[in-house]
Design brief:
Layout lengths: L3 H23 L1 H10 L1 H4 L2 H11 L1 H10 L4 E3 L5 H19 L5 H5 L1 H5 L23 H11 L3 E2 H29 L1 H9 L13 H17 L1
Antiparallel strand pairs: 1-2
Helix pairs in contact: 1-5, 1-10, 6-9, 9-10, 10-11, 11-12
Length: 222
């Protein structure tokens, strides 16, 4: 029988494989390679990418359930009320934020319908109300939900792995955003924290509008 430590190591390896595959498939070189050699499939790439990302999660979820082990800690009232309240607020914030995203574009249906084969397509810089306070609001909401749950060994391991990936992944993502938006995104980066809001670092409405305007002007010059 496998030791509990071995199970946790297998879970860590599974997460690492998932993150590596996820990052490679999201990279610009892979997209460019596809557009050059399999151009007729490029328009469906985003849709396929999201499908693969979901499918590859299932084995990990099965492992988490199988390797759960004993409970490490559980929230009890009144702490559980606070934990669940924060999770509910984060979920509400995530749902509310969807109004500021093009969900069809995010899922890949827009690219498929317009037969977009560009390997490096990106939208205009848009700073939603949440982006005025944190550069990656979805990652922030996910972290709140993750760390307000009851923990067993498998879930704690997964929480740590996901947190590390959000930190590393956000930095990799921002390298592309800096290439897309240049100085404008650099300014935004200096003004707004990445994952956790701060009462001392945010953009006003006019600040956000000015940065969006600058991004449009810079893009017109290109």
């Amino acid at each position: 029988m496998e030791s509990h430590l071995s199970q946790i190591i297998y879970l860590v390896i599974a997460w690492l494989i998932y993150f590596i595959v996820h990052s490679i498939l999201a990279s610009t070189p892979v997209k460019m390679l596809l557009s050059q050699h399999l151009a007729k499939y490029s328009a469906s790439y985003r849709l396929l990418y999201n499908f693969v990302a979901i499918i590859l999660l299932f084995p990990i979820l099965v492992m988490m359930r199988h390797y759960s082990g004993d409970s490490l800690w559980q929230w009890v009232a009144p702490a559980s009320w606070l934990a669940n309240g924060l999770a509910l607020l984060a979920l509400t914030g995530f749902i509310w934020s969807l109004r500021y995203y093009d969900s069809r574009e995010f899922l890949g249906f827009t690219q498929l319908s317009r037969k977009d084969v560009s390997a490096d397509h990106h939208e205009a810089l848009t700073l939603s109300p949440l982006h005025r306070f944190v550069r990656h609001p979805w990652y922030f909401f996910a972290l709140v939900i993750i760390w307000t749950r009851d923990m067993d060994a498998a879930f704690l391991t997964s929480a740590i792995m996901m947190t590390l990936y959000f930190i590393i992944g956000s930095r990799l993502e921002e390298k592309k955003l800096i290439r897309y938006y240049g100085e404008t995104y650099q300014i935004y980066r200096e003004r707004v924290p990445a994952l956790f809001p701060s009462p001392w670092a945010y953009l006003t409405d006019s600040d956000a509008e000015n940065l969006e305007k600058k991004a449009r002007e810079d893009n017109a010059i290109k």
